């Protein structure tokens, strides 16, 4: 299968502190990779390295076989932080259309096709009826869904989701997971979360990150690795046979 | 009051005030939503270096301000982003250095130190604008309108979330520097109206008022132009009637309008946090 992202021995230092240590990772077409780990474990940094927003101090990274800055057109991104300026004068539809900007050549004018794509994306995250609302008037979970729509309109080949389920209610989470499951046919998906239970049955591979990345190219993780990641004893809660994420333990 | 329009200097003053409102109405919106008020204040004050340069070289100060403020805007943008100096420290340093440079050059120019016309550049005197100032302001408006018409989506995107704009492949840093250049041009357009020290008031107050009842950027821009034009004309008339300095009168009037609008909106939306 086609390899989309390849990280070899990636080290990242921020203000003299090691944030990522010797990270190796390969993401292939149709992967749905869940990355879990504690807050401050480097999950957001890892996504930003893949986006080329952070340059590693050591190691080699390629996205679609090229340097990450050259491939941003093919990558959809849902950032972790919601909007901090709640008075920003912009409508939901305008925010989603921003996702199209990177694909257009100057002078960038939105076409009818862009509009249609934006409407479809809003429909997919069940936010179409809010399209004319100012983004700041929405709840945190609704904003997240708008940002997911904004990532989808880029028609990405790789979708990077940083805590996409934060503040999203559980019913909507299920719908979003089903949406991602559907999208997996067209793109590789990386979902980052500090919440183990959030990375549920839908992911096809799972990795633990706390400076170091524990990763086996499978959907299972070892209790010891979870404990190394979280630096504390971990109770393994498996969801039964059809929902199993974690290997059965004694 | 209509009688005052028979004087050419008053006509010029009104026209320049209206033209400057277009520039500050548009660019001010980005200054406010992108939260670059402090760097814009720095660009405005550093522009005084360009005025000093004009005096020293015996050229038209306003013509020297254009290249000087563009260079200082780019300088501040690059230094605050690319060096390890914290952004506000870098702005503070360049803000004062630009002004000090201007003061030294004026002092080195025989016969000009603390001359009355220098005061006009600091605090503005719209009643002394000439026909060529009028043409210059018109040209600056056209440049600003063309650039914003071409890049308004990009400017909106980098104002909303610059990191995301970079992540989708927009040249966010270059767009930011372009925006700072527009701020520099707006400063030039406003120097005659309110002077370098008060420029930041017209770059922030009309957009801040407009923002109180705008939920989209486009509406915020058109309203901000209208508000800026209204307070400038009203301020000019008030200054004429009371014989007070025009720039300061316009600023005080804008601040009053902002406070009244803010308070009345808050009273209507009682219960929500201030």
Compact summary:
The complex is a heterodimer of chains A (250) and B (274). Helix content of chain A is 27%, strand content 24%.
Structural description of this entry:
- The complex is a heterodimer of chains A (250) and B (274).
- Chain A is α/β, with parallel strands linked by helices and 250 residues long.
- Chain A has one domain: P-loop containing nucleotide triphosphate hydrolases (Rossmann fold), CATH 3.40.50.
- Chain A is built from six helices and nine strands, in the order βββαββαααβαβββα.
- Chain A has a six-stranded mixed sheet, with helices on both faces. A three-stranded antiparallel sheet of chain A has the order 2-1-4, covered by helices on one side.
- Chain B has 274 residues and is mostly helical.
- Chain B has one domain: ABC transporter involved in vitamin B12 uptake, BtuC (Orthogonal Bundle).
- In chain B, helix 1 runs antiparallel to helix 10, helix 8 packs across helix 9 and helix 10 crosses helix 11.
- Chain B is globular, with a radius of gyration of 19 Å.
- The mean pLDDT of chain B is 90.
- The interface between A and B is medium-sized, with 27 and 27 residues.
């Amino acid at each position: 299968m086609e390899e989309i992202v390849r990280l070899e021995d990636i080290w990242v230092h921020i203000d003299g502190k090691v944030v990522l240590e010797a990270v190796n990772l390969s993401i292939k077409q149709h992967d749905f990779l869940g990355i879990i780990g504690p807050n401050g474990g480097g999950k957001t940094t890892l996504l930003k390295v893949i986006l080329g927003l952070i340059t590693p101090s050591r190691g080699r990274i390629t996205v679609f076989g090229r340097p990450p800055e050259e491939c941003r057109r093919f990558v959809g991104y849902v950032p972790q932080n919601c909007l901090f300026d709640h008075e920003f004068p912009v409508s939901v539809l305008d925010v989603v259309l921003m996702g199209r900007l990177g694909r257009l050549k100057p002078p960038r004018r939105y076409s009818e096709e862009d509009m249609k794509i934006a409407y479809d994306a809003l429909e997919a995250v069940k936010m179409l009826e809010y399209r004319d609302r100012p983004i700041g008037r929405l709840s945190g979970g609704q904003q997240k869904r708008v940002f997911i729509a904004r990532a989808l309109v880029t028609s990405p080949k790789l979708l990077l989701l940083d805590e996409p389920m934060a503040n999203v209610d559980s019913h909507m989470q299920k719908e979003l997971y089903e949406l991602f499951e559907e999208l997996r046919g067209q793109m590789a998906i990386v979902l980052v979360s500090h919440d183990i239970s959030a990375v549920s049955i839908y992911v096809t591979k799972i990795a633990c990150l706390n400076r170091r990345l524990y990763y086996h190219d499978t959907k299972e993780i070892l209790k010891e690795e979870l404990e190394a990641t979280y630096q504390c004893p971990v109770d393994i809660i498996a969801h039964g046979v059809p929902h199993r994420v974690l290997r059965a333990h004694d | 009051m209509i009688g005052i329009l028979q004087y050419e200097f008053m006509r010029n003053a009104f026209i320049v005030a209206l033209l400057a409102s277009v520039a500050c109405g548009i660019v001010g919106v980005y200054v406010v939503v992108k939260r670059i008020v402090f760097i814009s204040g720095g660009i405005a004050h550093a522009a005084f270096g360009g005025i000093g340069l004009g005096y020293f070289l015996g050229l038209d100060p306003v013509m020297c301000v254009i290249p000087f403020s563009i260079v200082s805007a780019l300088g501040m943008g690059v230094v605050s982003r690319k060096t390890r100096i914290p952004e506000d420290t870098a702005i503070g340093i360049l803000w004062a250095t630009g002004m000090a440079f201007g003061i030294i050059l004026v002092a080195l120019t025989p016969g000009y130190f603390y001359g009355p016309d220098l005061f006009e550049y600091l605090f503005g005197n719209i009643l002394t604008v000439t026909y060529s100032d009028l043409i210059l302001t018109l040209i600056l408006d056209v440049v600003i309108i063309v650039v914003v018409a071409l890049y308004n989506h990009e400017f909106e995107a980098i104002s909303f979330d610059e990191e995301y704009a970079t992540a989708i492949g927009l040249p966010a840093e270059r767009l930011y520097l372009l925006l700072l250049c527009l701020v520099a041009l707006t400063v030039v357009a406003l120097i005659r109206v309110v002077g370098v020290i008060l420029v930041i008031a017209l770059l922030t107050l009309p957009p801040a008022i407009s923002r109180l009842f705008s939920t989209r950027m486009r509406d915020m821009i058109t309203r901000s132009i209208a508000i800026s034009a209204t307070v400038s004309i009203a301020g000019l008339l008030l200054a004429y009637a009371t014989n007070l300095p025009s720039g300061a009168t316009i600023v005080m009037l804008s601040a009053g309008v902002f406070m009244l609008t803010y308070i009345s909106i808050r009273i209507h939306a009682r219960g929500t946090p201030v």
